[in-house]
Amino acid sequence: LYATLDAQFSAPLEPLPAEQLPASERSGAAVLTRLPINTLRLDDIEGLASLDWLILDELADAMAVLENGVKALANTLLLQVGVAFQPTHQRQPNFAEVSHWASRHGFTFYRLNNPHHRSLMPERDDIARPQATQLANADALFIPSPQRLASLENEQRQRLAFILDSVFGIHDLPYQLLA
């Protein structure tokens, strides 16, 4: 774990060199210390009968998790992977890599969720909410491919419909899944 001055940059991925970061984020990404953490391959977790929904933020080594979880993710209903459009760390997942992996493993891209934007304006006390327009990161949602959707059991369709409707406010796809 790379522990940084600003906790929002602390991650198992190493921050980019300061000169590659926006000026407003350079000091916060300074590494204070590196701490060893134990990890386990997703496919090596014993007793994991199913995994309906996998969530990985943009500070996770998503590609390593996905590549080491092919068996565990074979019947997963939803992948929610944070992708960086303005990278801050080494090996951060980008949309193309994640989308390519997903399409090769029975998933299709559905939509971007929770977009976070970076403001190019300096911080000012007289502006309550400075405009932020540069897309920094978002969660990419991947659902089973049309072929996999067609072969889902009724219970799996219900679970996917419930997650999409109750968590993301998506109503059309759950309607289609349950109709």
Short key terms for the protein model shown above:
179 residues; alpha+beta; 4-stranded mixed β-sheet; 5 helices; 6 strands; 24% helix; 23% strand
Outline the structure in words.
By secondary structure, the protein is α+β, with helices and mostly antiparallel strands. Helices cover 24% and strands 23% of the residues. The chain has 5 helices and 6 strands, in the order βββαβαββααα. The protein has helices at residues 62-67, 95-104, 146-150, 154-168, 172-178; strands at residues 2-4, 31-34, 53-56, 78-84, 107-118, 134-144. It has a 4-stranded mixed beta sheet. Strand 3 (53-56), helix 1 (62-67) and strand 4 form a beta-alpha-beta unit. The radius of gyration is 19 Å and the shape is globular. The model has no long low-confidence stretch (mean pLDDT 92).
